[in-house]
Amino acid sequence: MKPIDPKLVQEHLIKVAGQALYIHLETTNGAYATHKNEAFFSAGAFIRNVQLTFLQGKITGKGPYRIGLETEQGWLYAEGLTEWELDSKGRLLLAGHDAEGKLAVALQMSASPFPK
Amino acid sequence: MEQHVLVVFPHPDDEAFGVAGTILSHTQAGTPVTYVCLTLGEMGRNMGRPIIANRETLPSIRKKELEEAARLLGITDLRRFGMRDKTVEFTDQIALQNRLFDVIEEVDPSLIITFYPGYAVHPDHDATGAAVIQAVQRLPKGSRPKVHALAFSNGCEEMLGEPDVINDITPYTAQKIKVIEAHTSQTAGMIEAMKQGYKAEDKDIIERLTIERFWTYPVAEGD
């Protein structure tokens, strides 16, 4: 992955708006966060291969970046995004890594489903 | 000497930290070891240092790392169950127990090594240990293999007492470090510190690399 170029990501979001896309969205502190520090409240969530079509999508911020996608009925939002990649299968992969390089957030979209 | 050892863990690298020396002691004694690894650790937060993976390439990277670790451990029977990281506790439990039961019947282990359910921190660890125990307890009381369970939750010793199986794995320490190192995408950030700590005779690190501790799970007591 490489550091996010917001201009290129924005161009891609404009290109895929209106298409049915499979989404992977996750955020996590890791399963050991509370084990290592009992005062830490661990939380995380992921959803994979839910399909949606967004009307408009925007990337904002100065880095780390935020992305919001507006659908007919609602919204998708992710923050903390730092890296991106348009992979060989044409999938847009976005991720946010913390100072140690650990994945903290991921947002991915693809015209075909991601492997289960 | 064991007749056959069955190791069941949910993530590639679970076998490296607390169990590698014990596995090596069995394989080097000529005991066959079967390792069932339920997932490919697809949801790992570590992506290598420097970053070598993304969410979609991580599974194939960890699969290769797992195969290399198994080779270093002398494991010739590695079985992957193809489940997804973080989902073990939500999957069909009876179906999982059935699959584990089939492996237990097939390889007929004298010893099973897995996580101690309820005391292994990660929900996948606890669910894996619970499924293994359930599968073992389907066997008639007299013919159940021993189960050595790994526990490391905070305060687990207050609840479970001292571990009753203490393996001195000093002869395998260098090999254990190589196994940990084989899981590069997960361990690259810590392996150097671990090696240096070992050289500098850091008490905690020496203990992690020379002693492996297990609790014998009371499988004979359940119906």
UniProtKB/TrEMBL annotation, chain A:
This is YojF family protein. InterPro entries: DUF1806, YojF_sf. It comes from the Bacteria. Pfam families: DUF1806.
From TrEMBL, chain B:
This is Bacillithiol biosynthesis deacetylase BshB2. InterPro entries: BshB2, GlcNAc_PI_deacetylase-related, LmbE-like_dom_sf. One of its GO terms (molecular function) is hydrolase activity, acting on carbon-nitrogen (but not peptide) bonds, in linear amides. Gene3D superfamilies: LmbE-like. PANTHER family: N-ACETYL-ALPHA-D-GLUCOSAMINYL L-MALATE DEACETYLASE 2-RELATED (PTHR12993:SF27), N-ACETYLGLUCOSAMINYL-PHOSPHATIDYLINOSITOL DE-N-ACETYLASE-RELATED (PTHR12993). It holds the Pfam family PIG-L. It comes from the Bacteria. Its cofactor is Zn(2+).
